[in-house]
Each structure stands twice: as structure tokens, then as C-alpha cells.
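User: Fold this; C-alpha cells only.

Assistant: Input:
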Amino acid sequence: MTRSLTLAALILLLASPAGAQTAPRKFGRGLAGMTTSVLEVPGNIVAESRARGYGEGIPLGFAKGLGMIIPRTLVGVWEFLSAPFPLPAGYQPILSPEFPWSYFEGGHAETPTKSKERGHAETPTKSKRHP
């Protein structure tokens, strides 16, 4: 029974208008950061693999993910405890992506691609089969 109530309360806390940053959302973001920080490892593998390819993405994402577990947890504790206060201004998230599972959503990488890092615009490539 208490698990159901806890889950329902968490869903209600996270259910806010799209993009709105509020104290309950910050509280939920902190709780998520404290409890699901291990998702940084597979999440960074996915993001780096999308941005750089599997050869570079898997080892680089693994290393970045391991390195982000502790910061995600500590920022989660900070956001959980400071949820009633608008720090930083407007309850904005400290880390990007906002939630650890956001790496898996939308099919786009959080990490910039090589061409964007160099300041080049990405141009679509034409298929060899279809001109």
C-alpha cells in the first residue's frame, strides 16, 4: 500500500506543465538523481555512441558515465534538500540532461557531434542508391 502511495506521489510531483520548473519538480529531480544515478553509465554510452559512433562511443560513454555517477548523486541530494528555495534562479536544473533517463528519449544525443564541435553545420548526405 505504501509503495503505491509513494509511486502516486512521485508521479504527481513530476507531473507539471512541459518545461515548467517548480519546487515539486526540483524535489522529484533530486530524488531521481539520488536513486537512479547509475543510469549515467548506459545513458552516456548511448549519447556518445549516437554522437561519435560505437567504436568511440562505448568506451568514452562508459568512462563519462562512471565519472558522472557521483556528481549526479550529490546534485540530487542538493536539489532534494533545497527544493523549497529557487536556487538556482527559477528552479533551473544544474545538470543536463535534467533526469538520468533522458539520455534514452527522443533519439538525439546530449553530446554535440564532431562537426558541431568544429563549428561546421551538418549537411545531409545523399544516399548512393537515391540521388
